[in-house]
Design brief:
Elements: H1 2-11, H2 14-32, E1 37-38, E2 46-48, E3 66-67, E4 74-75, E5 84-85, E6 92-111, E7 129-137, E8 153-160, E9 175-193, E10 204-213, H3 218-235
Antiparallel strand pairs: 1-10, 2-6, 3-4, 5-10, 6-9, 6-10, 7-8, 7-9
Helix pairs in contact: 2-3
Length: 236
């Protein structure tokens, strides 16, 4: 990077530097106004408190059952390979580690099963998340599930999650939460489901997707350096 800047200083005259700087500024303005993009994840990004019926947490971020993404993305439904079903007792939570720090704008949720009873009063269904606390961390060492740790920060308390319509297949997101936070990890501490009388602490989420605002990154650094060189040439 610094070798490139030095070469620019030696080779470019003031007019050329001015044009180059203007082009970089225009690029930075465009990047700053760009729409948020999908953070591409796989199943290894997700850690969960536990699993029931062989429906692992990896399904939450591996795209299984998904067609498209974001507000118009659809999930196929309740195939065992296409969603997460939590442990039936104890604390219920999940964390998603992006592997890098992002300016996270929106979290899209395809909630789990809700509605129709199978054999008893609400047995087997109404397991979609109803309320949860949403946390974030910038440190990848934030302990999974221990949201009392100071590395975690509460973002949304007792957040209500919309129920998925009864047995709906190929459904669009049930929620789109505006997080607007700089984070490396998002944690969801599930408090209740949508009324499962048999397992009131059971939780189910089929998919999560996160959109982040693009960062100019190294382009911003180069642009700042070029502007500095331009000012230096003018002083001379």
């Amino acid at each position: 990077m610094f070798g490139t800047i030095k070469s620019l200083y030696v080779m470019f005259n003031r007019k050329t530097l001015s044009l180059f700087a203007a082009t970089l500024i225009a690029g930075l303005v465009f990047a700053g106004s760009a729409q948020a993009g999908l953070i591409v994840l796989d199943g290894t990004a997700t850690t969960v408190s536990g699993v029931a019926s062989e429906r692992p947490g990896a399904n939450v971020t591996n795209g299984s059952g998904m067609t498209g993404s974001g507000a118009t993305g659809t999930h196929t439904g309740d195939d065992p390979d296409e969603g997460w079903l939590s442990n039936i007792s104890g604390d219920v939570w999940l964390t998603v580690n992006f592997g890098a720090t992002y300016d996270v704008e929106t979290m899209y949720v395809w909630n789990g099963e809700s509605g129709v009873a199978v054999s008893g009063p609400e047995e087997g269904y109404s397991r979609g998340v109803a309320t949860a606390d949403i946390y974030y961390a910038t440190d990848s060492d934030a302990p999974d599930g221990d949201f009392t740790d100071p590395k975690w920060t509460l973002l949304l308390a007792d957040q209500a999650f919309a129920a998925r319509a009864n047995n709906t297949l190929a459904y669009t997101p049930t929620d789109a939460f505006e997080l607007n936070v700089t984070a490396r990890v998002i944690g969801i501490d599930i408090k209740s489901n949508h009324g499962n009388a048999v397992f009131p602490t059971l939780g189910s989420i089929n998919e999560l997707q996160f959109y982040a605002v693009p960062e100019p990154g190294s382009l911003a650094l180069l642009g700042t350096a070029v502007l500095g060189l331009l000012c230096l040439r003018r002083r001379k």
